[in-house]
């Protein structure tokens, strides 16, 4: 899908000029196409430093694992990454049923003063963390009816992605490979099928290991990339956050520029016609 001619809601004066390169979700445009998680860092200071280095505008938070106010006596992530500066994307990591996922996001909405944007993930088991698609569909339908703007983690199945879009999800987020595996994009053909049919943003979620994985996702035509472990688990998380920022930008530019076709023959860089003999 082409998001170049999108509204600029959500951009401040400093970034309004970047709207043509922005990512639009549920009617709001964000200057960065990189979304980052907040788990696995040493502390909230490192989290904030990585978030800043990534250039992201959307920060996802696992409500079941990170305090954003549900535990009043503990430090809150929102002190380090305040909603006044970032869009907080609550997610349902750790949920294995539609019921638990819906309840978790209803709690998050209360903690975030009615904020409707959320990331739904309903997992199938603890070993693979693969999405449980029947429960995901059930939860997505309930959340959309309840007024949520649902971004949804899903399998790289174009049929399931289309069903989720028809339900009313504002973005589909197929996995590249298993969560935290760092294996990169294992099935670019399925991703391409999803991208070709989608009328909402397609954001790769899970499996990115290094900058080249992010660039490949963007070169395929994905609208964005979400990652956590690839940054937080790196030897130097802040440096990796910068690398991911550049990779997403470069991949998007390459996609818009249009790569040359692959050929089974050489093609000289300089034209042969009119050459000096």
UniProtKB/TrEMBL annotation:
Family annotation (SUPFAM superfamilies): ThiG-like
Active site positions, chain numbering: 119
HAMAP family documented for this protein: ThiG
Coiled-coil residue windows: none
Pathway the protein takes part in: Cofactor biosynthesis; thiamine diphosphate biosynthesis
EC number(s) stated in the UniProt entry for this protein: 2.8.1.10
Domain of life according to the entry: Bacteria
Subunit field text: Homotetramer. Forms heterodimers with either ThiH or ThiS.
Substrates-to-products reaction catalysed: [ThiS sulfur-carrier protein]-C-terminal-Gly-aminoethanethioate + 2-iminoacetate + 1-deoxy-D-xylulose 5-phosphate = [ThiS sulfur-carrier protein]-C-terminal Gly-Gly + 2-[(2R,5Z)-2-carboxy-4-methylthiazol-5(2H)-ylidene]ethyl phosphate + 2 H2O + H(+)
Keyword Cytoplasm in annotation: yes
Function of the molecule: Catalyzes the rearrangement of 1-deoxy-D-xylulose 5-phosphate (DXP) to produce the thiazole phosphate moiety of thiamine. Sulfur is provided by the thiocarboxylate moiety of the carrier protein ThiS. In vitro, sulfur can be provided by H(2)S.
Location in the cell: Cytoplasm
Domain Thiazole synthase ThiG stretches: 24-271
Keywords (A to Z) from UniProt: Cytoplasm, Schiff base, Thiamine biosynthesis, Transferase
Family statement: Belongs to the ThiG family.
Annotated positions binding 1-deoxy-D-xylulose 5-phosphate: 180, 206-207, 228-229
InterPro entries on file: Aldolase_TIM, Thiazole_synthase_ThiG, ThiG
Protein's recorded name: Thiazole synthase
């Amino acid at each position: 899908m082409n998001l170049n001619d999108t509204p600029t809601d959500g951009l401040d004066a400093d970034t309004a000029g970047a709207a043509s390169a922005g990512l639009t979700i549920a009617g709001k445009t964000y200057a960065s196409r990189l979304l980052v998680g907040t788990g696995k860092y040493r502390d909230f200071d490192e989290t904030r430093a990585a978030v800043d280095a990534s250039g992201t505008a959307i920060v996802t938070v696992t409500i079941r694992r990170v305090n954003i106010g549900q535990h009043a006596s503990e430090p809150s992530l929102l002190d380090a990454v305040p909603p006044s500066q970032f869009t907080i994307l609550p997610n349902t990591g750790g949920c294995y049923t539609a019921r638990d996922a819906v309840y978790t996001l209803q709690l998050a909405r209360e903690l975030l003063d009615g904020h409707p944007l959320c990331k739904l993930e309903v997992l199938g088991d603890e070993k693979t963390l693969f999405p449980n698609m029947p429960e995901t569909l059930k939860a997505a339908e309930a959340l959309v009816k309840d007024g949520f703007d649902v971004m949804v983690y899903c399998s790289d199945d174009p049929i399931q992605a289309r069903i989720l879009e028809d339900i009313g999800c504002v973005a589909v987020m197929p996995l590249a490979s298993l969560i935290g595996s760092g294996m990169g994009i294992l099935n670019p053909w399925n991703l391409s099928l999803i991208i070709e049919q989608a009328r909402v943003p397609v954001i790769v979620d899970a499996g990115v290991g290094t900058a080249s994985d992010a660039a490949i996702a963007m070169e395929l035509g994905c609208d964005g990339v979400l990652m956590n472990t690839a940054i937080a688990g790196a030897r130097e998380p802040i440096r990796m956050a910068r690398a991911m920022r550049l990779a997403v930008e470069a991949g998007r530019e390459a996609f818009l520029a249009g790569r040359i076709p692959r050929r089974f023959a050489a093609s000289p860089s300089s034209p042969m016609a009119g050459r000096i003999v």
